User: What shape does this take?
Amino acid sequence: MRCIIPKTTFTAKFLSALGRALPVFQAMSIKEVPDVEIDDSGIFKYVLIKATDKDNQSKNIVRGNASAEYHANVFEKTEKELKKKGISTECLGGGRIERNGNVISVYGHSIGYGKADHEVTVSILKKAFPSSKLTWSNEGY
Assistant: This one.
C-alpha cells in the first residue's frame, strides 16, 4: 500500500518549516577540538578532559574560566557543547590556574573530580602558550 501526500500549499509550507526546525548534526573530528580554552587572566577553576570523537580518536583538553563557581560548571558546559558535535567527554580531574601575563601556574584539586595530572595540563598549555612561563604544584586548593 502506498501513501500519497497531496501536494498542497499547506503541505509544502509545513514540510519546509519542519526542515528548518530540525537541528543539523555535524560530527566533529577530534583534530578540530581546541586543546585549550581558558581565561586571559586571573585565578580560576579548570578541568582536564579526555575528549573522544566518533572514530574513537581521543586527546586531552584543558578548559577553565573565572565565571565557574564549581569545577562541574566548567566540565558540564564543555560536555554539552562537544556532545552536540559528536564528541564524548570524560573529566580526568581539576584544579586551579593562575594566569598573569605570560606567567601561568597550575595547582590544587577539585573536590568533585579529584586532582588533575597537572604535569599533563602544563604540557598541553605549553603548546598553546609557548612563550609563557608555566609552573605546576600539587599544593593548594
